Amino acid sequence: MNLYNFLSILLIQFVILLPKIYVECRNPVEVDSHYSKVHEFINDKKSQGTRWAVLIAGSNGYMNYRHQADVCHAYQILKKGGIKDENIVVMMYDDIANNRENPKSGTIINNPHGEDVYHGVPKDYIGRDVNVGNFLNVLLGNRSALTGHGSGKVVSSGPNDTIFVYYSDHGGPGVLSMPMSKPLYADELNDALQKKHRLRTYKSMLIYVEACEAGSMFEGLLKPGMNIYATTASNATENSYAFYCPGEEPNLPPGYNTCLGDLYSINWMEHSEKYNMMTETLDKQYAVVRRRTMTKGSILGSNVIKYGDLKQLGSQSMYTYIGTNPGNGDNSSLKTDLESFATPSHYIDQRDTDLAYYQQQYQYAPMGSEKKTKAWQRCQNALQQRSYVDDSMDLIGKFLYGSNEMATNVMKALRPAGQSLVDDWSCYKTMVETYEKNCGPFSRHGLKHMRSLANMCNAGVKPENLAKASDYACSTLRKRPL
Ligand SMILES: *[C@@H]1O[C@H](CO)[C@@H](O)[C@H](O)[C@H]1NC(C)=O
Ligand SMILES: *[C@@H]1O[C@H](CO)[C@@H](O)[C@H](O)[C@H]1NC(C)=O
Ligand SMILES: *[C@@H]1O[C@H](CO)[C@@H](O)[C@H](O)[C@H]1NC(C)=O
Ligand SMILES: *[C@@H]1O[C@H](CO)[C@@H](O)[C@H](O)[C@H]1NC(C)=O
């Protein structure tokens, strides 16, 4: 088969696949229209301790450019807001700025205008030091645990201090990914937050999470009374969206074949760098970001959700956490802000950014080049990997439940809002390990299937049963001709 045959197959697959992947659409939920009164920032100032921040990108690889770009951009906002480097911990793999594919070596941009956001970013934890253990120890201020890792910088906060945590990444049901190692599970995050609260080493905390199914990190898990306000890019059961992607309006500068940012992240950051954060409250930023991120007609977006001590903290100013750039415009009105926000034709589902990336690589490589063949192959591999994981879950369902219907009832079930993904997290982790041992890694696309394993735990399936089922399913699939 020559390249032209490959091309037609590839194009057909894109045509068939892409519409399918733009998951079900849904009417936007009404925006909470009640804004609490703006706090006197003078009061904030009096009792304000030190502002701390942890900024973490949980991915690596050029196709995930956007997560590290988001985090670098967040750093610039905090820096201009007056937060000192010694109080900002940055965790990022750091394989983007000097990547071979980067058209402007040594820089990272987070929007099509292309201002560099990489300069000055502290490289506290890079490469394999971006992992669960280090992240939790940074947050808990456990300096001794970090000896010999990265800069050793930790959030050594006291009882009057505030903490801002921002995480940008791929995620799945109850997990946030890490670049080269096991993911952060929701129970571990919430346990660490409870520990931090018991240690009385913060006054209040603001947590922003960009990831697919990000709501599952807090849904039914974040305990009230810990002075934490968290918002997530997506609810517990939906994907989140990339933004400023190739082939979309507004156009990217020439040479960029990867998405530059993520929708929720861009929305909070562009809001934060435009307005006076002394007069913008947490509730107001939430409302603006929620409104900008949600589905509008046929343009799919995601539901930004807030969790935690919303009543107690919602009227605090954003300034309490991220400071403010004295050059920012004066206080905004929500209405004019929304009017000034332009919407592109569509956003790319975070889980499909790999395909979009290969498609771009393919499209712009010279005819007959090795680069073109490689892009095609990588795309084929990604598609094959998707169907392998999908098929393996189907076979596991059949093995365990006999009928498809029975399997679907258990495996596709969604728990209602307010209930956590799974009751027994250790069962869930064992299930994930068991599957991956027999079938290989879930990979980005497969992350969504992890919910089926959580559901099995909730339905009393034992890891031993999954071990048999996944061994059967994946040994069957490996024997199947391609
Ligand atoms: C700090 O980390 C070390 C090593 O992981 C652990 O043994 C210790 O209990 C931790 N201390 C706190 C206060 O979390
Ligand atoms: C925290 O603030 C209170 C009230 O302003 C003050 O009395 C106290 O000394 C502060 N504690 C620390 C550790 O700074
Ligand atoms: C804007 O904020 C200032 C304080 O920075 C306040 O005095 C003024 O009343 C606010 N204006 C509006 C229209 O909210
Ligand atoms: C989460 O989002 C999905 C997709 O938009 C929607 O169908 C579902 O109802 C939402 N769930 C909750 C609990 O809001």
UniProtKB/TrEMBL annotation:
CDD domains: legumain_C (cd21115)
GO biological process: proteolysis involved in protein catabolic process; vacuolar protein processing
Pfam families, A to Z: Legum_prodom (PF20985), Peptidase_C13 (PF01650)
Family matches, as InterPro entries: AE, Legum_prodom, Legumain_prodom_sf, Peptidase_C13
UniProt keywords, alphabetically: Disulfide bond, Glycoprotein, Hydrolase, Protease, Signal, Thiol protease
Sequence ranges assigned to domain Legumain prodomain in this UniProt record: 379-474
Gene3D superfamilies recorded: 1.10.132.130, 3.40.50.1460
Signal peptide stretch: 1-25
Superkingdom, natural source: Eukaryota
Molecular function via GO: cysteine-type endopeptidase activity
Residues of the active site: H170, C212 (nucleophile)
GO annotation, cellular component aspect: vacuole
Similarity-based family: Belongs to the peptidase C13 family.
This protein's name: Legumain prodomain domain-containing protein
Lineage, opening ranks: Eukaryota, Viridiplantae, Streptophyta, Embryophyta, Tracheophyta
